[in-house]
Design a protein that fits this description.
The chain is mainly α and 251 residues long. The chain has 10 helices and 2 strands.
Length: 251
């Protein structure tokens, strides 16, 4: 398994996609800090700091796309043929990919949080606002970001394994995460299912005692339930993809 994970990291490193998506993560993370501190109604006290750090979880979109490409690129360029010839077990291949992209997601989360710390600390210090990394809410927010972004790498793998077509998987996945889920939240008769969507689970995981428990009239689940829901969204599509889609003829 270690050999397979190393091979997956090698495949990832030999493309430029990870680099450009990492730059996008850095840019978005920095802009989000500015957007939260600069306005007159932005971060003005220490109790708002945890919410500022949770915004770095937006890196999940980038990692989701990276996960999708981790599977679909192999089918698009037929490198999956060589992969399967060397490792006939599709389960082993998918497991190695899940480990690889979960670790990659955690690395992207570290970068996103580091960028926010680098921008926010001197700015908040100038405003006499203390950032206490020993505070349980701050720790909850940062740890939650790592978990969420890492799991979305696996969510992306599952979407890629199920759809296989690169463009379709990326477009459908982003539409679902950024558009359809928000539409679900806006429909009175349907919004009760929103806490069990990926974004609903993400909000539950990142929720701290200083933030609201209600989003547009919908109560979030507990943090533990949010973790379970996001784990299901991560592993079920990946397992189905490994069991059915990746077991089809690859030529």
């Amino acid at each position: 398994m270690i050999r397979l994970v190393r091979a997956e990291f090698l495949k990832l490193r030999t493309t430029q996609v990870w680099f450009w998506l990492l730059l996008a993560t850095i840019a978005v993370s920095g802009l989000l800090v500015v957007a939260q501190i600069a306005p007159s109604d932005g971060v003005r006290s220490s109790d708002k700091v945890p919410d500022m750090f949770t915004s770095s979880s937006t890196a999940y979109v980038v990692v989701f796309v990276l996960g999708v490409l981790g599977v679909t690129s192999e089918f698009r360029y037929q490198t999956i043929t060589v992969t399967v010839l060397q490792t006939p077990s599709r389960w082993a291949i998918m497991t190695a990919k899940m480990i690889t992209y979960a670790i990659t997601g955690a690395i992207y989360a570290v970068v996103a949080v580091a960028v926010q710390i680098a921008v926010a600390l001197p700015w908040l210090s100038a405003k006499n606002i203390t950032v206490d990394f020993g505070d349980s809410n701050v720790q909850h927010a940062i740890i939650g970001v790592f978990g969420v972004v890492a799991l979305f790498g696996i969510v992306g793998l599952g979407a890629g394994a199920l759809m296989r077509n690169q463009i379709v998987a990326v477009v459908v996945g982003i539409l679902f995460l950024l558009v359809i889920e928000n539409i679900t939240l806006a429909i009175p008769g349907v919004r009760k299912v929103w806490p069990y969507t990926p974004n609903g689970a993400t909000q539950a995981i990142l929720h701290t005692t200083g933030s609201t428990e209600v989003t547009d009239g919908v109560h979030l689940t507990s943090t533990a339930t949010g973790v379970i829901v996001l784990l299901l969204w991560a592993f079920i599509p990946a397992i189905i993809g490994a069991a059915f889609t990746m077991n089809r003829d690859i030529t």
